[in-house]
Design a protein that fits this description.
With 334 residues, this protein is of the alpha/beta class. Helix content is 53%, strand content 8%. The radius of gyration is 21 Å and the shape is globular.
Amino acid sequence: MKIYGNRQATDRLSDYAKNNSMPHALLFFGDSGTGKRTLADYTAMMYFCERGGDAPCMSCDNCKRIGEHIHPDVIYADCAVLKAEELREDILPTTFEKAVEGGMKVYIFSEFQLLNNVCQNALLTYLEEPSPSVRFILTASNRNGILPTILSRTAAVQTFKLSVEECERALSDQGVKNAEETARTYNGNLGLALKSVRDKNAAVYIQLSRELCGYIIDKNEYGAINLLLHLPQPKDDKRGPLKTVVIEAGKIFHDALVTAMGGKPSTGCCPELSEKAAANFSAAALNAIAKETVSFGRAVTETNFNSKITTNAFVAAIFNAMENHCCPKPRLLP
């Protein structure tokens, strides 16, 4: 495993280690593809590395097992699919159990912003009264969906995308053909670039997310609904494409919001669309749209999820946000 970019994050972790002050709970936040999960593994390696020091060696047995996600005392939970009963009954009670190898236990929760408030409050108790042998690492695309009480009990570290040139070098290191073209297509977002290369479906979903943004920017409600209701439906993951397309579109609108407020977008995966959205919508409308995509991402994980009903409600909420924030919606022909 190699860390690309995020020097500020690794320097901060090294400072924690040098001062023997590693927090009991860390939050890595930043857009998809900016290295949050890699940094979570890197941090877990720091806890278990057999050589010690202020950075993991990445070559000892513990580091290698963490890199392969097979260390018995590093527990992973994907909040995009995690159910409340699973968290309360199968995961949190194990924090009181002795580590398999007799040392520390590390819990890594990815996409934490998608966890509902009930589940976040369940975890809060464990953050308020941490066990000396347990550490928590959270990753999130943004902090908007995280309870303030959780944020106040975690040390937050932001992640950033690479420059196009850095991304190209990283892709070349990993043997990716057409590294320059791929790096430019994803504007330096290494995670999205690698995902598109390794998973052809991912490239399709990212393209569809951009088409969805185009429909929303053009205020084409019918086009948005039609696209979402006719996505590919893999037998083993019927909800996955819908969630991916909407969440990726949400990131573009989040970038648009940052642009509209005079900031520098952190994802930058499609600057043309985010700039167009920023020019057409108010900051309030963009904020409302971004929040709706997060809510939809949570809804997809619910057991009683109905794709047609929820999709129609989601698109209606998007266009209502436009109306409520002075973004007039065109009248649709029957």
